[in-house]
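hey all, quick one before standup. I had two proteins in the batch that finished overnight and I want to keep them in one place so we stop losing track of which output belongs to which input. First protein below, input sequence then structure tokens straight from the run.
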Amino acid sequence: MKLQILHVPDCPNTAVLAARLDEVLTGRADIAVEQVDVADQDVAAALRMTGSPTLLVDGDDPFAVPGVSASMSCRLYVDETGAVSGAPSVAQLRAVVVGRHPTTPPRKALALAGWRAAGTGSRQAALPPALRSLHQAVLRHFLNEGDAPDIGWMRGQASGLGVDPDAAIGQLTAADLVHVDRDGQVAVAYPFSGVPSGHQVQLANGPVVWAMCAIDALGIPQMADCDTTITAADPSTVEPVTVEADDGRWLWTPASTVVLVGQTRQRGTSAECTCEHVNFYTRAEQADAYLDDHPELSGRVIDQRTAVELAGGVFGGLLRSRHDSPSAGRTRAIPHAAT
């Protein structure tokens, strides 16, 4: 295994990442860590560094975010508690380095810690306070109204926050957080879809909303801290799937349901590269068959508990203030039952 830390000169988080890797690699003298000093933007693009520091494992970035361009700026990561840091946590590094199984094909070993650290929560955490508030206002609109706001509503909210409306909307789009369609309606605001999708979420004592994918659907009750009923279908058989979040319990029907987390290797937004390939399957072999039939994807089939925890890590903190504890705004517990 080849590990490389790509970094700009004098990056303070290079030493943090190196120290955490040393802890993970204790007793593994067979694995060396190379530090690569990236001096300019051209080198960053050639090496695919999307912020400093960037870790490469056998040439791949396990924390890569679809659509993010090469950059010399500081890179932020969100750890398993929802905290923002300048380097992946020890637990995340252990998952992507030690947790690799030598017999698993690389394209079927998508690193979930990296997928989570690169997700919506991380991108939101990098926003200045006013833009974070604007993003949260968009999410609350979906929860309260059950439909997508339009660009006029967003401009009014931005003005009320004291920021230039068009610039603010442009920044949310550039961060791959909110996308507006040609008609001026919000089409994407992860975890929400502005149009009906294959993942319907009924909020208890609230409206029906639509999620961009299976993980997004599982994230909505954890973000909103409310009970929900998720309705979807196995894309290979059209067999219905229901997931109920009820007072901290997760009830899955059928009991054998799993989630496939997949993504393309192309650059683009999460909606373009990921959402289509993140679905519920009633049986693991059907999800595996989808990956076998789509060699252009990298992905991983995950069980119910892992799916809920992944969704909570990505979306659970989106409506929290920066001063809330990491557990605030999430479901109280994650016991599981299947019917």
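OK second protein, same deal, sequence then tokens:
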Amino acid sequence: MKNLLNALQEGRFVELPETNKEKALNYLANLIEAMPDLGPGTDVAGAVLSREQQFNTGIGMGWACPHMRSQHEGGIICAAGWSPAGINYGACDHKPVYFVVMYYVPDCQKNVYLKEISSLARAIQKQQGGQDISKMQSLAEARNWILDLVSNALETQVTDAKARMIHLEAKQAAAVQVSGTGTGTPTESLPCAVIPLSILVMPGARPVVLSQDSEVIAKLESAGDMEPALSKQAPFDHGGYKILFRGTTAYQSRRLIHDCLALKLNGTGADKPKI
């Protein structure tokens, strides 16, 4: 929901002075039309109102998401408004609309828009049963509430993306293991489990494994010194696992945290790192 976040950060979130639907839409359209990146002669208000006559954009739960499409190049522009009294919008649930989020969408950005609007709808659905938006007292309160909504949604997206990345990296690692050195000869050990972990390295101390899997901690920390292998930041076998690097973060006092994946191997007796 990057474009809604941009609107909040760049001053395009306003209190709507009108409870009339058409006037409120015109007000937000004027904010978008004032943007210098907009294509010349673009009638946002006319396009939004024309589309609204064909299809009501009230999505329920106090929200509406009108938009217009454009053949011009460029990026999506968003403007949003809060109505303290609520707008008789004709939404599908017949309830007043308190938040209107309007989008200007170039055709080349259609897929980006669809992804954002679906994320927004999921976030709104998730907030059902939370704070009663009809009782908000100020624009600042409304803005902070939407910021929390967007932030939570983005955190969920990042978590989901990280999970997909771990899954992909695991599949790629399995493929490497099967193909061996590229000669077509399978290796003796195939991965049967994938465990995310972090490894803390400090001067004068043995590496510390941070994981939710107690077996991984015990096997890796008891199988000998990993530091020479860790310093190369390349895959290595250790304690019956293949360790894959995802990233390293450096801290004060020469402390490092390596973000890794551990692939548990079948049929391996590796007790020392192969580097």
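Flagging for whoever picks this up: The radius of gyration is 27 Å. The helical segments are 2-9, 21-33, 44-54, 110-126, 139-179, 214-222, 227-232.
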